[in-house]
């Protein structure tokens, strides 16, 4: 009697197989096992979603997580960088905070929302220190105070002058504008009550902002350009306005940018 032929055994993992952690990337769709070794294997995958999954799993592994997050800040994928950046923000470790200080988060910025309501082009914008309140001025000589968290206008004021610049006080209680002939006017932020302006209250620049000693943010036609001052290179361009950008402002923690445009809108930019 002839022996029955047997099929050769498959020795390579298939797409739906589970594989143990190792040094080579796993097949697409495969489940990687092996604890910390599996995390490291996924982090070495050529697939960005696998690397992000590795960062999420690495939360169990303390110092190893921190090391992977710091590596991920330099990943070729902005989505991987974003996952690492958001996670590092929750770390209180000195090393993590230092890594965030050295990182340029502006490459991750996108439009978080658009505020509409002005009847003419926007000429000046400002953000309160806590990032909640926005103040914008328009060519029609009106000022709008916005609750950014609610994404709505709280009230509108008549400035009775062209608005060249706006600034919010460091305590977030008041704001001031510079109008024609260097006129300075001030109001209480949450009520709109006009008050006597403090000396030196205005320190804003209309469409060019230095965020620190590393970055310059400026308007360029319908967009916002962000530059690294040390290298002289453009980091990124934020696009979304449909007409000339006339004003930019940055929050105290550098996590939000607001912009005003001749398209009569105020846009807010940040990491979603």
UniProtKB/TrEMBL annotation:
<dbReference type="InterPro" id="IPR036322">
    <property type="entry name" value="WD40_repeat_dom_sf"/>
</dbReference>
<keyword id="KW-0853">WD repeat</keyword>
<protein>
    <submittedName>
        <fullName>Uncharacterized protein</fullName>
    </submittedName>
</protein>
<feature type="repeat" description="WD">
    <location>
        <begin position="238"/>
        <end position="272"/>
    </location>
</feature>
<feature type="region of interest" description="Disordered">
    <location>
        <begin position="1"/>
        <end position="24"/>
    </location>
</feature>
<dbReference type="Pfam" id="PF00400">
    <property type="entry name" value="WD40"/>
</dbReference>
<feature type="compositionally biased region" description="Basic and acidic residues">
    <location>
        <begin position="1"/>
        <end position="17"/>
    </location>
</feature>
<keyword id="KW-0677">Repeat</keyword>
<feature type="repeat" description="WD">
    <location>
        <begin position="115"/>
        <end position="147"/>
    </location>
</feature>
<dbReference type="InterPro" id="IPR001680">
    <property type="entry name" value="WD40_rpt"/>
</dbReference>
<dbReference type="InterPro" id="IPR020472">
    <property type="entry name" value="WD40_PAC1"/>
</dbReference>
<dbReference type="InterPro" id="IPR015943">
    <property type="entry name" value="WD40/YVTN_repeat-like_dom_sf"/>
</dbReference>
């Amino acid at each position: 009697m002839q022996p029955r032929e047997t099929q050769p055994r498959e020795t390579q993992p298939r797409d739906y197989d589970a594989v143990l952690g190792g040094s080579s990337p796993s097949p697409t769709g495969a489940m990687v096992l092996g604890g910390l070794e599996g995390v490291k294997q996924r982090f070495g995958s050529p697939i960005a979603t696998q690397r992000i999954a590795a960062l999420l799993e690495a939360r169990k592994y303390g110092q190893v997580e921190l090391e992977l997050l710091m590596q991920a800040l330099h990943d070729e994928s902005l989505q991987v960088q974003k996952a690492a950046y958001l996670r590092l923000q929750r770390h209180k470790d000195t090393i993590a905070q230092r890594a965030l200080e050295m990182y340029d988060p502006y490459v991750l910025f996108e439009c978080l929302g658009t505020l509409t309501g002005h009847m003419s082009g926007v000429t000046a914008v400002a953000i309160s220190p806590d990032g909640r309140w926005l103040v914008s001025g328009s060519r029609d000589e009106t000022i709008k105070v916005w609750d950014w968290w609610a994404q709505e206008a709280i009230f509108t004021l008549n400035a009775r002058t062209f608005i060249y610049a706006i600034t919010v006080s460091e305590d977030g209680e008041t704001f001031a504008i510079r109008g024609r002939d260097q006129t300075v006017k001030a109001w209480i932020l949450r009520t709109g009550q006009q008050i006597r302006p403090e000396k030196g209250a205005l320190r804003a620049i209309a469409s060019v902002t230095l965020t620190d000693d590393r970055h310059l943010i400026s308007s360029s036609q319908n967009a916002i350009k962000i530059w690294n001052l040390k290298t002289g290179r453009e980091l990124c361009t934020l696009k979304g306005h449909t007409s000339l950008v006339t004003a930019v402002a940055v929050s105290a923690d550098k996590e939000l940018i607001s912009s005003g445009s001749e398209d009569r809108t105020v846009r807010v930019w940040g990491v979603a």
